[in-house]
Amino acid sequence: MAADRFPSPFDIETPPGAEGWESMYDWYHLFGPERRELDEGRFWFADRLHHPDVLHPYDEIQCECWWQALGAFNTRIFAMPPSFGVDQRIVNGRLYVTPVAAPAEQIAARAEEFGRRAGHYYERWDAIYAEWKEKVTAKLEEIRGLRFDPLPELEPESTVYEHVGHSAGFRMIRDFDRLVLTMYETYQYHFELLNIGYAAYLTFFAMCRQAFPDISDQSISRMVGGLRVELYRPDDELKRLAKEAQRLGLAGRLGGTEDAATLFAALRSDTAGAEWVADWERTADPWFLINTDPGHPGGYHTYPTWADEPEIPLASVREYLRRLEAGESIDRPTDEVLSERDRITAGYRELLADEERATFDETLALARQVFAYIEEHVLYIEHWMWATFWAKSKELSRALAAMGEFDEPEDMFFLRRYEVAEAIYDCVAGWSVGSRPRGADHWRPIITRRREIYEALRAWEPPPALGPPPTQIDEPFTVMLWGITTSTVSEWLRADGDAGTLRGTAGSPGVVEGPVRVVTHPSELTEVQPGEVLVCPATSPSWAPVFARVAATISDVGGIMSHTAIVCREYGMPSVVGTGNAVATLRTGQRVRVDGSEGVVTVLAPADAEPDGAGRSGSP
Question: Which residue ranges does the record assign to the PEP-utilising enzyme mobile domain (predicted)?
Answer without folding.
Answer: 529-599
